[in-house]
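go over both lines:
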Amino acid sequence: MRYQISGKQIDIGDALQTHVQDELGAAVAKYAERPTDALVIFSKSASEFVCEATVHLSTGLTAQAKAHSHEIYSAFDKCCDKMEKQLRRYKRRLKDHHRERLQPVELSGASSYILASDSGDGDSEPESLQPIIVAEMETRIPALSVGEAVMQMELSGLPVLVFRNEGNKGLNVVYRRDDGNIGWIDP
């Protein structure tokens, strides 16, 4: 597994990098057979350290965790525990479905845009109905079953996930509803 360990305006020493590789590698190896890479970012927010970890699996799924603590090692350990819990749930769901993906998830390209928010006070009329594009990026749309899409959405902590349904090859959306349930749009 490839590791990318960095800090935002924090110097990450060799001891912390070794600790991250050993602990995260052991946690991920328990539940994921073929992790491809891990990204760990440390930052500081007021008096707390923040650790954000993202692990990409060869199946195409991504697990993310984030934790805060007053000590940098403690922040990483909490983050690692959250990651391990997510991967344990992921593996249990795979066993419950009696299906293991033999082929990697097929990804298709798409454009992703970030639009400027309305900074007005709400009383004034906008000059035009065309939104202002702040950024344009390339994104990937995975080909998943509905169950895998829900699992991916929960693992990554996203409120919405757009995916290509393996059953009918159409674009579908799963999202977290206000009542806590999961919604599925199949046009």
